[in-house]
Amino acid sequence: MSMISKKICLVGDFGVGKTSLIRRFVDRQFSDQYLSTVGVKISRKVVESVNLQLLIWDLEGHTKFKAIAPSYLQGSSGAVIVADISRMETVERLSEHVQLFLSVNPKGAIVIALNKADLSDREKLEYLVQMVQTQELKQVSGLYLTSAKTGAFVDEIFQQLAGKILSP
Questions:
Q1: DSSP bridge partners of 140
Q2: Residues ≥6 apart with Cβ < 8 Å to 56
Q3: Domain layout of the chain by residue ranges
Q4: Residue 165's Cα: distance from chain center in Å?
Q5: Residues in Cβ contact with 107 at an 8 Å cutoff, skipping those fewer than 6 apart
Q6: 4-166: CATH class
Q7: Which tens digit of pLDDT belongs to each residue from 77-107?
Q8: What are 165's strand-pairing partners?
Q9: Taking the complete model, does pTM exceed 0.85, yes or no?
Q10: Torsion on CA atoms 34, 56, 58, 89, rounded to nearest 10
Q11: Reduced to 3 DSSP states, what percent helix, strand and coil does the chain have, rounded to the nearest 5?
C-alpha cells in the first residue's frame, strides 16, 4: 500500500504553543524558549497507524497575518486549532480560527487543542472545556487538553486528525 500525503495546518494566536506541539510530535522535544514563527514552517511526520504522511504547516499567529492566511490554508485537509488555556482571549477566538479555516476548506477536519494544560488546575480546565463545547464549532471532531511540555494528548490530536482525514 502506498503512502498518502495530506497537508494539515496549525492555527491559533501567537504564543499559544503551535510550534511546541509540532516539535513534541515530530521530534519528541520541548523547549520553553519562545521563538515567534514568521510566515510558515513545514514539517513532516508519518502516522504509522493509518499509513499517512502529514505535511504539517505551522502558521504565524499574528493578527496582521489574517490577510494572507487563506493562501497558506489552501488545500489543507485538516487543522489543529490551538488556544493557550492561560490566556482567555485565545480561547475566546477559537471560533474565529475555525471559521477562517472552513471558509477556505469547507470540508476540512478540525481538532481543537487547549494547550498548556499543565499550567492550570482541574476546575479551570473543566470550565474551559465546557465553555468551548457550548460554542457552535462546525466540523470539530475532537477537543483535547494538551501540553507540549509534558506531551499530554499531543500524539492524540494528530492521530485523531489523521483518522478523520482518511475516513469517508
A1: 110
A2: 8, 9, 10, 22, 25, 26, 42, 43, 44, 45
A3: 4-166
A4: 14
A5: none
A6: alpha beta
A7: 999 999 999 999 999 999 999 999 999 999 9
A8: none
A9: yes
A10: -90
A11: 40, 25, 35
